[in-house]
Design goal:
nucleotide-binding; alpha/beta; Enolase-like, domain 1; binds nicotinamide-adenine-dinucleotide; flavoprotein; binds flavin-adenine dinucleotide; 31% helix; FAD/NAD(P)-binding domain; dihydrolipoyl dehydrogenase (NADH) activity; FAD; single chain; 15 helices; 486 residues; Pyr_nuc-diS_OxRdtase
């Protein structure tokens, strides 16, 4: 088969959530699609990110919730059953096998080629397969790059020999280290610190700068999460940078972590949760005039901007727009529809919120941080609204005062913030922090994406007594402040 050539309408590189959805959506548009994958179908999300990490966190969150329910507290006083948690994690990561996804791909009539794919000039992809064979693929309409990201390590002395943990080591861990150092203060750092502290590690978080945890979100979110992590026993240090790491006496020894204040600490493992780099160093970008290792900048139809003739698309993490599975899948749905329409010579509906416009990427990206307490947000933060020059009313509410929250748990602590565009009277941003708030997020996303006027929300009646009555309290607070009664 060496040197075999095949032609498809669409060639997709990478079968993570973005690639799988792009292949399916283009196939649904009547095109032939092939997907190239060199590890497991499902990508980082299924095996080393969303799925296993949420499986590690679910018992942590459920136990914390149960401990706040009178009558239940004593039943959940003990430690977590670590082998059972790991066994559940293994199941949720489908034992690092991808047969189910292969079956699904077959059921939607998308071809699969296993191997490492790389661009080789316009519309050309060469796949190096594990058996040494190669196949050349020609894309009649589009190539979609969906190769995702890898951990971005800082350039530190000693790192190479210190066997640092990435998200893969943490989410697929077979043991709970006694002492775990976590570098970074973003979502991966927070979630993994939450999980491992509860599983029995003594966690030390090393966060450079003083902007707090989760610093792309409303500041109160990071503050509440940091307080809770400290209450759980984690050592959360701000303004602390790592200057070097070393495994002192060989493979089994602990790691020494040197800090910029001249201090050092010793840990059994060190997790680097210091952001992501695009997985583009080895995909032949140089053959089409792009720079290997760069993020792929796209327009609002996900076409790579610096490539002539509009045949190259980049979807998911690799375009650096919003590094989350659901957003990559959204992008794939839009890009797939765009590729389908262009292939048929149809006009695009690229008006705001049109079928071929990536509007949600900038207006309504939802995110849940599965920490304890949970953080759920969509749309703008106060800081982002200010930066955009948008005049907003900022409405805060203590979720603990909602009847449903008192039912949910004793001493419920949570906070909601809703940003209302003062001119258009639409909701442009929502942040909830507190137990059970992850399931409130879709309501907030519908409100933001539908750009419904706040007056109409009085008719969206939340059931009593649920936490969702926070929406009513927000409306009342806004009414009393602005004197507007619908
Ligand atoms: C610890 C952790 C937890 C997370 N939790 C969540 C969460 O709860 N919710 C959420 O929404 N997001 C979460 N994310 C983010 C989420 O994992 C990513 O946004 C998502 O995986 C991106 O999907 P993707 O398809 O763009 O890329 P990926 O999932 O990275 O998939 C890319 C695929 O391309 C393949 N590939 C790369 N290069 C080639 C090549 N040359 N040839 C063939 N195949 C190739 C890779 O093997 C991989 O399968 C988490 C991330 C981390 C690190
Ligand atoms: N539940 C979820 O939705 C979820 C969960 C995990 C990850 N994700 C997504 O995956 C992506 C990656 O997450 P992440 O936490 O790795 O990245 P991030 O960009 O969210 O956070 C990186 C953190 O590392 C710090 N950092 C960067 N370089 C550093 C350095 N040299 N030294 C010390 N600290 C450094 C940053 O200041 C920041 O605190 C994010 O976009 C996130 O949204 C989503």
């Amino acid at each position: 088969m060496n040197g075999t050539s095949r032609a498809y309408d669409v060639v997709v590189l990478g079968a993570g959530p973005a690639g799988e959805n792009l292949a399916d959506r283009t196939r649904a548009a009547g095109l032939t699609s092939v997907i190239v994958e060199n590890e497991l179908l499902g990508g980082e999300c299924s095996f080393w990110a969303c799925e296993p990490s949420k499986a590690l966190l679910r018992p942590v969150i459920a136990r914390a919730d149960a401990r706040r329910v009178p009558g239940l507290r004593r039943a959940v006083e003990g430690p977590l059953d670590v082998p059972a948690v790991f066994a559940h994690r293994d199941k949720m990561a489908t034992y690092w096998q991808d047969e189910d996804q292969v079956d699904w791909l077959r059921s939607v009539s998308v071809d699969l080629i296993r191997g490492h794919g790389r661009l080789d000039g316009p519309r050309q992809v060469v796949v190096d397969m594990p058996d040494g064979e190669t196949v050349r693929l020609t894309a009649r309409h589009a190539v979609g790059v969906c190769t995702g990201t890898v951990t971005a390590f800082p350039d530190l002395p000693g790192l190479e020999h210190a066997r640092p943990w990435t998200n893969r080591d943490a989410t697929a861990a077979r043991h709970v280290p006694d002492r775990l150092a976590v570098v970074g203060g973003g979502v991966v750092a927070v979630e993994m610190a939450t999980a491992f502290q509860a599983l029995g590690s003594q966690v030390t978080m090393l966060v450079r700068g003083h902007k707090g945890l989760l610093n792309r979100m409303e500041p109160f979110a990071g503050e509440m999460v940091a307080d809770a992590l400290r209450a759980a026993g984690a050592d959360v240090r701000f303004g602390t940078s790592v200057t070097g790491v070393a495994r002192e006496d060989g493979a089994q020894s602990p790691v020494r972590v040197d800090l910029d204040d001249g201090d050092s600490l010793v840990a059994d493992e060190i997790l680097f949760a210091t952001g992501r780099s695009p997985h583009t160093a080895d995909i032949g970008l140089e053959t089409i005039g792009l720079t290997p290792g760069d993020w792929l900048t796209v327009d609002d139809s996900y076409r790579v901007t610096d490539v002539a003739d509009g045949w190259l698309y980049a979807v998911g993490d690799v375009n650096h727009r919003a590094l989350m599975t659901h957003q990559g899948k959204y992008q794939a749905r839009i890009a797939g529809a765009v590729i389908g329409a262009r292939a048929k010579g149809e006009a695009l509906d690229d008006r705001r919120w049109g079928a071929h416009a990536s509007t949600a990427d900038s207006a309504a990206v939802p995110q849940v941080v599965f920490s304890e307490p949970e953080v759920a947000s969509v749309g703008l933060t106060t800081r982002e609204a200010e930066r955009a020059g948008l005049r907003v009313d900022v409405v805060d509410y203590d979720i603990g005062r909602v009847a449903g929250a008192a039912q949910y748990s004793d001493g419920y602590q949570g906070r909601a913030r809703v940003l209302i565009d003062a001119e258009r009277r639409t909701v442009v941003g929502v942040t909830f922090v507190g137990p059970g708030t992850q399931e409130l997020l879709y309501s907030a996303t519908v409100v933001v994406a539908s750009e419904v006027q706040v007056d109409r929300l009085w008719h969206a009646v939340p059931a009593f007594p649920t936490i969702s009555e926070v929406w009513l309290r927000i409306l009342e607070t806004y009414r009393d402040r602005t004197g507007t009664v619908a």
